[in-house]
From TrEMBL:
It comes from Aquariibacter lacus. GO terms for cellular component: cytosol. GO terms for molecular function: 4 iron, 4 sulfur cluster binding; metal ion binding; quinolinate synthetase A activity. Transmembrane segments: none annotated. GO terms for biological process: 'de novo' NAD+ biosynthetic process from L-aspartate. It comes from the Bacteria. The gene is nadA. The lineage of its organism: Bacteria, Pseudomonadati, Pseudomonadota, Betaproteobacteria, Burkholderiales. Catalyzes the condensation of iminoaspartate with dihydroxyacetone phosphate to form quinolinate. Its EC number is 2.5.1.72. This is Quinolinate synthase. Pathway: Cofactor biosynthesis; NAD(+) biosynthesis; quinolinate from iminoaspartate: step 1/1. Its cofactor is [4Fe-4S] cluster.
Length: 319
């Protein structure tokens, strides 16, 4: 513990010396979440991270999360230094959507408005009309549907299907998935729910349809957190990365929180409710990147400029 405290103090001093602000996602290590909040940074969902980084006066952003979050920050603030503790921290959705294949898919369906999830590379965003995150995807697709648009959606098939079913929009879906949320199991969740009939089930919409069908609340990480703080003595079963439980416990210490089941019959799962790429963001990696001035995100032109439009459209919509 003394060594951890010393490392935390070192990270704090380095952030202060560089005038840098830490922008962390709810899924990263509790130490990093706490450090972000203690130093004037933020712990947030992907939409709030993008907005915070854009609006903060600091000229250096340290993004603790996965690559697309650092890229979004850089696309929005090209003149700021954007650093990540671990540049190799990617996302299965981003990996499942290679830019060339995606461009061919778009070329084959020129009549469709291209809507991409935030969890994609800058090159994929450069081809999109709209970017969305899980907290605003429903509203944006409703808006497009009202305009009579047909949609090409990528890359999360579960989120796409959820939005399609909820809005009734005409959506053609790319077939990617998040390896963390894809592991949640409907049958096992139903059994857990039966054991705890008072529990409210909170589900991130990257989860499979059998899991979403059992939800009392479907929403982004911030929206799931709000469901807990709205009912701070409640009992909840949470189907998202278990990194979020740290903030839930801090803000609602009396709430009873259970992780949703990830695999049946004792079988092991690939990710067990914690993203392996988010987990690459440790305190040591943060100190190293600040000390050595490594981990800088670059998004070369013209891709940056082309990707900016779809992000700004989303931010204007939610403003
Ligand atoms: P949100 O934080 O926008 O809910 O996204 C979840 C996610 O998968 C981040 O990797
Ligand atoms: Fe990607 Fe899933 Fe990890 Fe989020 S939790 S970064 S969607 S793999």
């Amino acid at each position: 513990p003394a060594a951890r405290a010393a490392l935390g103090a070192r990270a704090k001093a380095l952030l202060a010396a560089r005038g840098a602000v830490l922008v962390a996602h709810y899924y990263v290590e509790p130490e990093l979440q706490d450090l972000a909040l203690a130093t004037g940074g933020i712990v947030a969902d992907s939409l709030e991270m993008a907005r915070f980084g854009r609006d903060h006066a600091a000229q250096e952003l340290v993004v603790a999360g996965v690559r697309f979050m650092g890229e979004s920050a850089k696309i929005l603030s090209p003149h700021k230094t954007v650093r990540m503790p671990e540049l190799e921290a990617t996302c299965s959705l981003d990996l499942a959507c290679p830019p060339d294949d995606f461009a061919a898919f778009c070329d084959a369906h020129p009549d469709r408005t291209v809507v991409v999830y935030a969890n994609t590379s800058a090159a994929v965003k450069a081809r999109a009309d709209w970017m969305v995150t899980s907290s605003c995807a429903l509203g944006i697709v409703e808006h497009l549907k009202a305009q009579g648009r047909k949609i090409l959606w990528a890359p999360d098939r579960h989120l796409g299907r959820y939005i399609q079913q909820t809005t009734g929009a005409d959506m053609l879906l790319w077939q990617g998935e998040c390896i963390v949320h894809d592991e949640f199991k409907g049958l096992e969740l139903e059994l857990l729910k039966a054991e705890h009939p008072q529990a409210r089930v909170l589900v991130h919409p990257e989860s499979p349809s059998a899991v979403v069908a059992l939800a009392d609340v479907v929403g982004s990480t911030s929206q799931l957190l709000k469901a807990v703080t709205d009912e701070p003595t409640g009992t909840f079963i949470v189907a998202t990365d278990n990194g979020l439980l740290h903030r839930m416990r801090q803000l609602a210490p009396q709430a009873v929180l259970m992780e949703a089941p990830t695999a049946g019959n004792g079988a092991t799962c690939k990710s067990c409710a914690h993203c392996p790429w988010m987990a690459m963001n440790g305190l040591q990696a943060l100190v190293d990147c600040l000390e050595r001035q490594t981990g800088e995100i670059q998004v070369p032109e013209p891709v940056r400029g082309q990707a900016l439009g779809c992000i700004e459209r989303m931010l204007a919509f939610v403003a």
